[in-house]
Amino acid sequence: xxVKVGEKHLNNNYLLKTEEAREIYSKIKDLPIVDYHCHLxxxxxxxxKPFDNIGEMWLGGDHYKxxxxxxxxxxxxxxxxxxxxxEKFIKYAAALELAAGNPLYHWSHMELSxxxxxxxxxxxxxxxxxxxxxxxxxxxxxxxPRKLIEQSKxxxxxxxxxxxxxxxxxKKIREDxxxxxxxxxxxxxxxxxxxxxTGYPDYIKKLAEVSGTEITDLEGLKAAVIKRLDFFCLNGxxxxxxxxxxxxxxxxxxxxxxDTFKKALAxxxxxxxxxxxxxxxxxxxxxxxxKKRSLVMQMHLAVYRNANSNLFAALGADCGVDCVGxxxxxxxxxxxxxxxxKTGGMPQTVIYTxxxxxxxxxxxxxxxxxxxxxxxxxxxxxxxxxxxxEMEIIAENSALGSFxxxxxxxxxxLSYARHDYFRRIAADIxxxxxxxxxxxxxxxxxxxxxxxxYNIKELTEQ
Length: 462
Hints:
The chain has 462 residues and is of the alpha/beta class.
């Protein structure tokens, strides 16, 4: 299933240090996948065009890999420039050879083995050979988005969609009975909340148009959002999401939030205090609407977007220059969750933090409220140590068996190797505890089955 070269290099016991871990892993390795947060394109899933080459598959839009290449000193023309995919792939191999300890080293080799049948380390001196071998495999097997999804046993995947999206491709996929995987939209509110961003008034005009609602004040804005939320629910939405680089430390009343929104429509300057209060008001409103519709509210916290302004200006968002943000205020999170709980009731809520410095604090806060749990190790924390640390923090502060497990958070159809990566780490943790006499083996198997598949399956189907 993964790379088998040599006795130790990513062999079938990779990450599984004890016999107990290997036994637990054997029970979960073939479970289906529910990918409840990803950035795959529903258009590409519907069209299902065969891939052309592994260079484009790996490097066409994967800012994880772009970032690694930059840190390895690779010239930008081999990253986002117009050099051919073969050259880019060879340069990526050179960067990967330097990436000991980086999860990309693990994931890339797992993908080569799982999806291309290539079981050898990727290095500069064999990159051209592996490029040709992978491309021959692609051509022979006509690899396409749906084939990779089906091969990975993905039952359900939840894309990330702006609230003004037409969801036309979700509808088309649903109507195609030959494809068994459920592809569900998720209600992403970032652009709705970023009232100080350039072009915000134009965005609101688009929201007014697609919702059929006149938007001149806060009341009109919320009416439009409700219509879009109902539209998403009609199209199978189960999850919502927000990932803005701010967290409110106060909540405006409707009159104050209305004033701020009108200033945003007029293009006027909005202070930090006004902005925070407006977001707080909207969070409270959105959470209540999510609760009414039994939707899962996801919060992605502590991210700093577009740190390198030159690259952002040249390439736009998601070009590999987002960073770990400052840890958010635990007090602000407590006050927000408490207000939500007192006002409209707490929807099922999953909290992710990109800054692990207050992960334990967030876990303790989650335990103070109903329906709130910590999410998977996210993005810059999504590596062996980060996954282990997040699981240990959850175990120490709550019931590990209620954890929802892995998600890809990826734009790549090859990223389902990460679920195997997670399952190995989870099995290793529980195997270690069983081996040390800290936990029962039969219970460990059931627990890892739940966090690998059954918990998120149940939540998605509620």
